[in-house]
Write a structure and sequence with these properties.
The protein has eight helices and 20 strands. The chain is α/β, with parallel strands linked by helices. It has an eight-stranded mixed β-sheet, sandwiched between helices.
Length: about 350
């Protein structure tokens, strides 16, 4: 039988788990809140850390609440429904600060500004739904098991309707299906975007307009803008209004949506190959990039460092790879602004926008 221990939860880790100490070793505890005193069962023990599951909350921390979702604790989709929203925002900011300081060596940071989601429930316009053995819903925490879900409180009404339709079909076998509350054409801030079935689009529909307004303000205007990892052109369609010439680089299937959604020069290539060959010495007014969770390959960040760009706007969904890439971009650019975007309320996930200006 696994060992039972009493733990005091000190903080929240980047993956969303609570962090406690046991004989000097870090113990990661899902569904925990800072200040909790818990009885937990050790499920994994390594040389430097352990993992545990809560058996009983002996004393709740000040930020713990009853989750608004009846599937909380079974469904693995929302890691922080047991925390109130202000505590979620504080935790995301601390996770971001820790990464930038510990990995990026940025000891003096500008004030972190929050772009809050207009909705904390009913905001999500797409989701990946799992099905197996007649069950339709979402994976359980740290498991392939499917939790049968009749409703999901973070889905917007249109996406909830898609979940209901999927449940009515009760597909045989097992697998996953992406549901979307929007069709092949999405209208945001007075502009239509074509979004193919294999193309990525930000999930928080309630935040789309404010997000684009943020991009427009932070990117500014000028003669030449370069956008790497341009996707369907969600940002491109905004910055093309402020710059005389925009080059957008994308290699995925979404490049075809990008070409239809914008009037800019589109380069069908990987950011790595194009940046390495073309970006050094271009001296654009702006380099805008939004790489995948793994961040930039070294040749991209090094090319940005050599580009002579007046401004770099980096949008990231992973603080640790962001911090690493800021180090690689180097001392030629200074971090002047940081905006933490609460893109997925009720979860530990975050988006962050960093503005770097050239050091004169």
């Amino acid at each position: 039988m696994a060992e039972l221990v009493e733990l005091e939860i000190e903080s929240l880790a980047a993956g969303g788990d609570g962090v406690a100490r046991l004989d000097g070793m870090a113990v990661f505890v899902p569904r925990a809140a800072p200040g909790d005193r818990v009885l937990a069962r050790i499920t994994e023990s390594r040389r430097r850390f352990a993992r545990a599951e809560i058996e009983q909350v002996l004393r709740p921390g000040p930020d713990r609440r009853d989750p608004p979702c009846r599937y909380a604790g079974r469904c693995g989709g929302c890691s922080w429904q047991h925390l109130d929203e202000s505590a979620q925002r504080r935790a995301r900011e601390q996770i971001l600060r820790d990464a930038l300081q510990r990995i990026g060596g940025l000891r003096e940071l500008p004030d972190i500004v929050h772009l809050e989601s207009p909705r904390v429930l009913g905001y999500r316009s797409r989701a990946r739904v799992a099905h197996a053995a007649g069950q339709v819903g979402f994976r359980a925490h740290a498991s392939h098991r499917v939790v049968d879900v009749n409703e999901c409180i973070v889905l917007d009404p249109a996406t909830s309707a898609e979940l209901a339709r999927l449940r009515a079909r009760r597909r045989r076998g097992h697998g996953e299906t992406e549901i979307r509350g929007f069709g092949p054409q999405v209208r945001v801030a007075g502009r239509d975007y074509l979004v193919g079935p294999d193309s990525f689009f930000q999930a928080n529909a309630s935040l789309w307009s404010d997000w684009l307004d943020l991009i427009a303000r932070k990117c500014g205007s000028g003669a030449l803008a370069i956008e790497l990892y341009a996707g369907v052109g969600f940002y491109t369609a905004v910055i093309e209004r402020g710059f005389e010439h925009v080059i957008a680089v994308e290699r995925a299937r979404s490049v075809h949506d990008l070409e239809r959604n914008t009037g800019v020069e589109v380069i069908h290539a990987s950011a790595e190959s194009w940046a390495k060959e073309s970006l050094p010495g271009m001296r654009p007014d702006l380099v805008l990039l939004n790489p995948p969770r793994m961040g930039c390959a070294p040749e991209v960040s090094e090319a940005i460092a050599l580009s002579g760009a007046r401004r770099v706007v980096y949008v990231s969904c992973d603080p640790s790879t962001l911090a690493r890439d800021l180090v690689r971009i180097g001392d030629g650019h200074r971090v002047d602004e940081i905006v933490l975007i609460d893109a997925l309320p009720q979860t530990h996930h975050l988006e962050v926008l960093v503005v770097l200006n050239a050091v004169s």
